[in-house]
Request: fold
Amino acid sequence: MSSVAQKKGFGATLWDWLTTVDHKKIGILYFLGGGFFFVVGGIEAMLIRWQLHKPNNDFVSAGLFNDLITMHGTTMIFLAAMPILFGFMNAIVPLQIGARDVAFPFINSLGFWMFFFGGLFLNLSWFFQQVPDAGWTSYASLSIASEGHGVDFYAIGLQIAGGGTLMAGINFLVTIINMRAPGMTYMRMPLFTWTTFVASAMILFAFPPLTVGLFFLTFDRMFGGNFFDHTMGGNTIIWEHIFWIFGHPEVYILILPAFGIFSEIFSTFSRKRLFGYPSMVFATVLIGFLGFMVWAHHMFTVGLGPTANAIFAVATMAIAVPTGVKIFNWLLTMWGGSIRVTTPMLYALGFIPSFVMGGVTGVMQGAAPLDYQLHDSYFIVAHFHYVIVGGVVLGILAATHYWWPKMFGTLLDEALGKVTFWFFFIGFHMTFLIQHWLGFWGMPRRVWTFMDGQGWNSANLISTIGAFLMAIGVIVLVYNVIITSVKNVKVANDPWGDGRTLEWAIESPPIYYNFPATPLVRGLDTVWIEKMEGNETGLTPAEPIKDIHMPNGSIIPILMSFGLFIAGFGAMFRTEESWGLPVLIFGLLWTFVAMAARSLQDDTGYYVKKDEILRDLKRKGGQK
Amino acid sequence: MDLNKKFTPETWPDHPERATLEAKNKFVGFWLFLGGETILFATLFATYIALKNSGPSGFGFSTQELYELPLVFVMTMLLLTSSLTSVFAMYHLRNYNFKKMQLWLAITAFLGLGFLMLEVYEFTHYVKLGFTYNNSAFSSAFYTLVGTHGFHVAVGLVWITLLIFRNAKRGLNLYNATKYYTFSLYWHFIDVVWVFIFTVVYLMGVIG
Reply:
């Protein structure tokens, strides 16, 4: 394989992307896939808000409204937020630890394609007009009673996508444990790598319960199981427990990488070492741990009893402590720093007050007695959008601007970036701040429409206007992406000028083997240390240039995932269509054959020869 | 990695299963995977405990009447012994004795197959009694927990059979040593899960 740039035909380029195991390309695939679903989920949100902009609206039917809220939540959590974060993890974490790829490049590709086909499967429900309608939590009594195949699309689609997520989690854990460059001790890892590490550990322990829960749901709905059917001795509360044992860690799986992103941005644009780095790491681990101890705060009103409620209330409030530690560390990182308000920094600055507001309402709901008042009201909707949009989405948008040059080799336009920020930020607060009061005024969540004369009209209208401002912000971002991609002004290694971590010491985007020689890491923010000592390249090599071992690309991941996708349809139509069972068997067999093909061939990768690396270096202009 | 590199028992590394970076990655990754599997089974156990003996009104089955310990005892012995034989196989993996390793793995597979056949017999027996999957919450939880374990045994059998035949002609190298080793880890894990099933499902079912 030659690295000399060649003009490739469309077919060859497509084949390259379908078979790639390069973490940087898979990162981009995750980013694009997640971005697509983000737009889909966003359109669903707009339809929801338009339906609620005035009383007694009949823009959508009640049934379609249920479809929309279910798909909006499911899409945004599983198919937009997580994959986009995975995109950044893939693109950046191996660079930050000085590795040439992830631990399992093949499984990395498999994880992406399973997410993609799982998401596709879920969204094809729109074309079958049998859409999941039991909410993104899919509580058992509702989901068992739901007619048609809607909830089956949910269960099978998430099962496939969830398998991919679990693989990605294990992959990042092993990558960070085994593949750090010499000198990169755990306490020298950039905070984005740390948060990826903890979030991956949480994926490892949170996703198996979801797998089991979805199997129970599938068995109950499709194979006559009785887990949740109380007339057969089942218990519907089991689903709630299993779902939240997964679901609560899931929100920390989303927010921790966002914390990591902001830590990088605060430190870079304050031109200071992150304040309280060890306490940041400790707080991250503690949040990861406590995240598993609080699931029942979603179930205060179920009737688990005062003892259980009290324990979970205290555990919930305890999480505010490490989170507070983080907030103060970010503030103190900026204190006395030489601050530059770039677009990513603007998002970071906007994040702090927004997320604190979401956190405070979280502690309010953590108080079990008050939760009885707030439960299932718009206050809840306001709260979780404050943490998810005010935390995760602002993080994603910040990272999009911050790492865009590293992923695509060109900067996004700063002026347009700031326009995006202000539309999005003002729109976000306009949409969701007022919803706290809507909750206090008694508006229940998940209602299709509301009647006139309850004092909810203007608040809902304001909320809808805010949502459209957010949409304008996203449209400006898409425009920004298009025009900067067309102009395609190439940037140097460190376009921000203040990069502190290893990804900024190599070209943008990096060559496929990342580092000609594995770097030596000399401390936290190693590139900054090198630059302060006058080393222009920011890197000290840990080894002489030698042959590099690289993995081969493979088409098998996409084939395996496609087999599961086919099998999903077979399983779903097994009872009413004669082709159901054969298709199920065919799909599983397809996957099995693909697995066997992978297992029986010896794929030991290939070597990039030393001569070729030296040639690449010479072409780049004599980087030592 | 050079697949054709020849070793002698002297040059064979002490820990062939994690002698290269790729092998080390698989080794750590597989341990982590088993961590996730533990949570998966924990969820199944919790559900089983919650739904044990519970069915529609007038439900006629209970753990005391249903389970037969002698059969389960034989199954347990088969699986525990198969774990021991897989240890022998790993002993020979470390000693670079390919033939003996294959032999012990084949014995492991046969013991596992025996276990699986007895489990199939057990399930068919229960179904004949009317204790079908759809019969109650108890039956759904029982078959899902024990069946998931049985499915893992079946996967392990396919896995080891493929490994034994795939490598029969070419012997050990540092590439397939990890594959053999992770299989043995998997097999021990299945065994440990069965110890819990034996205790929680069968012993506590009959006694408790």
